[in-house]
Design goal:
About 45% of the residues lie in helices and about 10% in strands. The chain has helices at about 5, 15-25, 55-70, 80-90, 100-110, 155-165, 200-210, 220-225, 245-250, 285-315, 325-335, 340-360, 365-385, 390-405, 410-430, 430-445, 485-490; strands at about 35-40, 45-50, 95-100, 115-120, 125, 175-180, 185-195, 240, 255-260, 265-270, 450, 455.
Length: about 500
Amino acid sequence: MPDQKHNLIIPLSENVEENIKKLEMALGNSDDLSIRRLSVSTKNLVIIHIEGIVDDQSITENVISPIIQLNKENLLFKSAQDLADKMVEIISVASIEFIFNWSELLDKILGGDTVILLDDSTKAITLGTKKIQSRSITEPTTQTVIKGPKDSFTENISTNISLVRSRIQNAKLRLKSTKVGNVTKTDVGIMYIEGIADHSIVNEAMSRLKKINIDSILEANYIEEAVRDNRKTLFPLMQSSERPDVVAANLLEGKIAIIIQGTPFVLILPVFLIQFFQSPEDYYENNVFSSFLRLIRIGSFLLNMYASAIYLGLITHHQGLIPTTLMVTLMAQRERVPFPAIIELLLMELAFEVLREAGVRMPRAIGPAVSIVGALILGQAAVEAGFVSAAIVIIVATSAINSFTLPNTNIVNTARGLRFLLIFSSAFIGFYGILLLTLCILVHLCSLRSFGVPYVAPFAPFRISGQKDSLIRFPITSLNMNDSEVKKETKTK
């Protein structure tokens, strides 16, 4: 629960030293708290900030130097208010404002601002001197393309906002900011385009953000889990992207972007299922070629889910559906295998998951080598030793390769989870189990909503205009990006 005392509106004291003692007590006498005492015309003042999150050069040149110069002019000020007004005139920083209570004072200092306290004054001057250290803009690591922009988001929210604004230089691009996390006080921004985005969804998103009651927000998934419509589904109801061009394109389609301080991934909402099979490169290549690749991705997703389950169903329950010649070959391979088909398949599936995880966690220099060598050597050795059949290795490898064609990691994880459910249902009653679970998945998909928008749109409810950029992509000239698909689905609902 948030600190109730922190939320009380406690006014500042007129005594600077009393304010300093109270501040040091609140921050536990932290060693990175910088306090510098100065005087101007017999008036005492204190400049306070936290080291490491401020621009030291800006403070020296634009704050301290003008104040020292003002002191040399030997001007007389009748009151602290007159001195404060004069300081606002001579200090040149991006933003200056007055604050009057302790909660604002703490938030400003912890956020990277510099605060000036004056004797005989119950208000403080806050100066925008924040400078969060972050890495430079680099190429995307999870959503790579051959043709297209090569920049990606960073962990700095200001940088990320600027990358989006550089692509949409329009006065209707809006930003609403808030802080989430009772302890971390993480900066979160909602971006949308006025007139294209649905206001009801914008208000709903902001409302859900303000209702989040957790201590920390360290990554985008913290917010995704807290605000999503259904927390009991394997399907992703929000899209995360590290590419500014993807976020800009979705904003132009009427969607909303949630930008979070400390993570290079931006959340996009609402989303449709078909969106996870669309790559940003689809719009940078010829529409015929892009449509072909999109169909391949959808087919790869289905193969990734169903290949193992279909093989298991054929080999255990429906041998009559296998051609005789192939059946003889498969049975000859299985003669040396001591395990049932379900155990054999699960061993290989789990072995591949272990290899995948090892390749991800190992240092980059040797990670790919571990994955390739492990797959080749272990697969061949397992077949020669008689632990598994060669057909199982082919099926599992096919499923694995198909997963690499999907452009979004969230939908890959969904396919991985559903694949194991389908394997167990197939082992139980064969194709009937696969069909029953498939029907359950379809019913579940039709029931899902992403911020109130049907998840499987534009297929259910079916809309002809929405088919222009679903299974296939029509030419760019026939796609009206400003005709919000989200608004259409909201009206349909």
